Amino acid sequence: MFNKKIQRVLRIARTVRYLRMSQLYWFIRRRVIKTQAVAPVVPDVILCREFLWPTLPQALEPDSSSSRNEDIAFCFLNVSRSFSASAMHWAPQDVNRLWRYNLHYFDFLQDARSIAEKEFLIGDWIEKNPLGSEPAWEPYTASLRIVNWVKYLAALASRTSESCSAMLSSLYQQALWLEKNLEFHILANHYFENLKALLFAGVFFQGKDADRWGKYAVAELEKELREQILPDGCHYERTPQYHCVVLNDVLDLIQLTRLPLAEQRSEWFSPEFSIQLMDAAKKMLVFLADIINPLGQYPLLNDSAFYDVTPLEILRRAKSLGIFLDVASNESSRIVQHHAAGFYGYSMGADWFMIDCGDIGPAYQPGHTHCDMLSYELVIAGIPVVVDSGLLEYEPGEMRRYVRSTAAHNVVQIDDAEQSEIWGEFRVARRARKLHAEIQRQLDEIVFEGSFSGFHKLNGIVHRRKVRIKVDDNGRSQCWAITDEIKGGGNHRLRSYIHLHPAITPSWQGEILSLDYHGKSFANLILSSTVLANVVVKIEDSLFCPEFGLSYKSKKIVLELQSSLPVQFGYTIKRSDLR
Description:
Layout: H1 2-16, H2 21-32, E1 72-76, E2 79-83, H3 97-105, H4 115-128, H5 139-155, H6 162-180, H7 188-204, H8 208-228, H9 240-258, H10 271-291, H11 311-320, E3 334-338, E4 343-348, E5 351-356, E6 376-380, E7 383-386, H12 398-404, E8 412-414, E9 422-423, E10 427-428, E11 433-442, E12 445-454, E13 461-471, E14 477-487, E15 491-499, E16 504-509, E17 512-517, E18 520-527, E19 536-547, E20 550-564, E21 567-575
Antiparallel strand pairs: 1-2, 3-4, 4-5, 5-6, 6-7, 8-15, 9-10, 11-12, 12-13, 13-14, 14-21, 15-20, 16-17, 17-18, 18-21, 19-20
Helix pairs in contact: 3-5, 4-6, 5-6, 5-7, 6-7, 7-8, 7-9, 9-10, 9-11, 10-11
């Protein structure tokens, strides 16, 4: 028991050492001392501006069939719940924490619900969620809700009703509260959302408070854009899902600066700020276009599930804003190399390969990190074959630990050690470190080579992976040869995982492992001849979680080898004609 306590203290110390001092200060203040700002004073007269948010859909069209006596239905994270108007519950305990957060975001204000239902929900929320209550008043939740309420109010023809007056007063109070409870202890995408909300509130309202919110938000957003958007356009948390979230935020900010009333805020929205937003959007869009597969999906690397807004929808939205990209067509061969993000790949037509070899980032906020260094995804002829396990939920427990673990990715695990020392829902102590990565064309092959040091429990191991993609004269991929070299000392059990899409079924055809699609051989997995006698091949059950709340049964192939280090082994995935 005493040793476990010591190990826990050491693990915390190895985690805290990466934090900024300001983060540590605010963490102690918020989580340990539990201090919060006092209740803000809302002015008796609230002045707001007239403007129409340009992208609000048929959200405000009344539905004549709706009735206050009908149940009110919600569906978040693929989980549906209904509440009666007389017993609307804002903190249901039969759903997870993220579902409850979504309920308080008020994204549903942009749904085709009736105005009466929306006004009821807003009024009920104000009545049942007193200042400071959780999750209603958590800063991230408040940030998303503030933006949604501003967009909703902007689209109303009149704001003179009693319910609208209550909403304006609450919205003003939420902005004042957020200003005093910014997420300095978390930073990253949370702080970005805080600033976006303050800016929306600053533009919407009039007065000294609004001026203060707007000026602060713009000054901080300029800094955050410089830091959070990497030189290659990837959001610095290196997670495709959050890249899309922040990119959508940037597009929102671009639209905000283009509103006619923005001219009245010229002291905030300088030409330089508008240019900075456009530059960030273009870089982020190019990166997104680079990494999506022939199905229009991004790889599920790190904490990624398929986002509510698809990559293609984001690209179309950008085009509607006049942001045009000169990106290669899927019909042409394309090498992808983003060193800052750590994403490398090759695509040709309906074939696509993407591999991750990027450092954990940012160092002070690794909450969305997985043990997926050198993990890859593979699409052949438009069909997903090798996939990442995905992300089911953020709830603490066995599933959260698993999806972040080494075994959940298409990598090599050594004994039972992890690439990085992950713990809790969002913590990382000792971390795998990228050593080298590059992808290039070599004659009739596309060759990726990457390496990292990690597995600190084993006193440090170096894993080097080489992927050779054989292509024909037209650039069409024929096979993908993966070779792993593990350097270190001692005798270890090595397990190389290959997670298959649920539509792919592995079956033995003699000594060849066939990867079948709808009962037909689609590709073959062939072991390297040098280690064929020493490797045990297993087919095991797995899970594929492409969206929050969704999991599908699938299969994984495990190549197991007991060997002294250094050692080299691998396999080849070779396409076969699908007839």
